[in-house]
Amino acid sequence: MSTRAEPTSPRLTVLQLVGNLDIGGAQQVVVTLAKYLAADGHRPVVCSFRDGPLRADLEALGIPVVLVRGRRGSVLAVHRVVRETLRVRRELREIVRRHGIDVIQTHLLRSLDFLVATLPRRGGGPLVYWTFHNYNFMLRAEHLSTQRWLLRPKRLVYRSLYRVLSGRVHGLVAVSDEVRTAILDELGDVDDKIIVIPNGVDVDRHDAPIDRAAVRDELSVGRDDTVLAMVGTFKRQKGHLHLVEAATRLRESHPDLRFLLVGDGPLRAEVEDAARRAGVDDVVRFLGSRRDVARILAASDGFVLPSLWEGLPIALLEAMAAGLPCVATDVSGTEQVVVDGETGILIPPGDPLALAKALEQLAGDPQRVRRMGAAGRQRIDALFSARAQTRDHVDRFVADLRAAR
């Protein structure tokens, strides 16, 4: 199905500003938004502070990608931080000027969100929107590779800057109702700035015919095995260790269960070691970062996401778009997507026993699995399409531009 459409009016030039172009949920949001903005007659430009594999996807769509060297060095080296911050600001200002940017939307920038908020000039300049992809969006220990003793003071500074500079931006995009609540809790009375726009997925990616048996052969998975996929960065938030424990509990009673873990990240070695020590490393397969997630989902029987918190997970939307029933933790964002007992099963976070029982339900009832998968695809088509997500963004951008004039 073509994504081309008649241009809307006015035609916007939108800068999608993202921390990196690695494979991840928020980064996929950027690619999808850029694709559908272009399809609707607008002009997207993507800027990132670190290159990655998704750059090729964007350039294949004909979307300009600009790389800016991010700020480096410790915050304790004040002179260097100030110098590099001013350099980044000059480069962003030049990108805005050169491309005639109407709207800047940020993703995963953290401290650079504050810098971007200073770009609009009094009486002119682009509109700026911060996007919050996660319920737990404030600075966390995992964001600091060194000097973790600075976490508490830096969190206080972050909160203060978000509160002060939110008055300079034109909107705070929350990807779910729960993220909206988190923004209000952290930033105070900014309700008039918040726009809740759920993430959407490009359902066309899951409509192409895929040889399920061939993919299973390629992955060394039996054609009669029950295959459950998980897609996510290996970090504490995603709860991989709970999945390993659940797999251990099911090893004897369900020897045909196989788990395909797609992704990479700082905790991968720890999770692999846990699987080896539990004796399930032949059951839990680690596939690394993959560009063919749609193929892997098509070859699977279900999807699992044991996160401890979320925003509105793209991986879950993709799995439901692929027609898979889902077992997910009842955390921010997932309960907005999964209808418990209808499109999947919701369980408490951090509970491997509950996770094992839910996975057992999927493995033991093929007819229910098919009904849940079909209902999930219908729900994605109705509520979480990329076209609807893009339309909601453009409607807000246009309304705010008209108000600013």
Question: Would you spell out the secondary-structure blueprint of this structure?
Answer:
Layout lengths: L12 E6 L6 H15 L3 E6 L5 H7 L4 E3 L10 H22 L3 E5 L3 H6 L10 E6 L18 H15 L5 E4 L2 H11 L6 E3 L15 H7 L7 E6 L8 H11 L6 E6 L5 H11 L5 E5 L4 H6 L3 E4 L8 H8 L4 E4 L4 H4 L6 E4 L4 H13 L1 H18 L2 H19 L1
Parallel strand pairs: 1-2, 1-4, 2-3, 4-5, 5-6, 6-7, 8-9, 8-11, 9-10, 11-12, 12-13
Key structural traits:
405 residues, alpha/beta, Rossmann fold, 7-stranded parallel β-sheet, 6-stranded parallel β-sheet, 15 helices, 13 strands
- Secondary-structure element order, N to C: EHEHEHEHEHEHEHEHEHEHEHEHEHHH
> Strand fraction band?
15-25%
Poorly predicted runs are none
Give the beta-strand count: 13
Query: What is the CATH C-level name of the largest domain?
Result: Alpha Beta
* Cα distance spanning the termini: 37 Å
The global form is globular
Number of domains: 2
Relative helix content: 40-55%
Biggest sheet, in brief? 7 strands, parallel
Radius of gyration: 22 Å
Rounded mean pLDDT is: 91
Total helical elements: 15
Tell me what the CATH architecture of the largest domain is. 3-Layer(aba) Sandwich
Task: State the secondary-structure class.
Answer: alpha/beta
| CATH-defined topology of the largest domain | Rossmann fold
> What order do the strands of the largest sheet run in, or round the barrel if closed?
3-2-1-4-5-6-7
CATH superfamily of the largest domain: Glycogen Phosphorylase B
